[in-house]
Amino acid sequence: VKKARLLIFDKGKxxxxxxxxxxxxxxxxTATENAFSKAFFEYGFQQFQLEATDILHxxxxxxxxxxxxxxxxxxxxxxxxRAKDELDHRYQSLPTFTxxxxxxxxxxxxxxxxxxxxxxxxxx
Length: 124
Known about the structure:
This protein folds into two domains: 2-49, no CATH class; 55-123, no CATH class. The protein contains seven helices and no strands. It is mostly helical.
């Protein structure tokens, strides 16, 4: 980003020039300085390591199903039904999100009864 900014502001290169695009495009960066990066750079701070990934696009749904079942088993081992009841309550209390996107959850998400791929997407 720093090199790209030097090209733009000191050398007068266009933001769409080959040189600037070469520096930025491989990581989908922009020529914008971030205040946190600038202030904490000397301490080895890397903001990109802190940003959360979009987990929905990182998991295949079959893998998410296996992870979710494993998490349910951990909850069951931890506090038997209390933790699973709390999980079910929290899913049940979530509002729906536009027609056809996230529908109302069943009263017992943790039972995994009649679950479709769409339900697992919503749970994720």
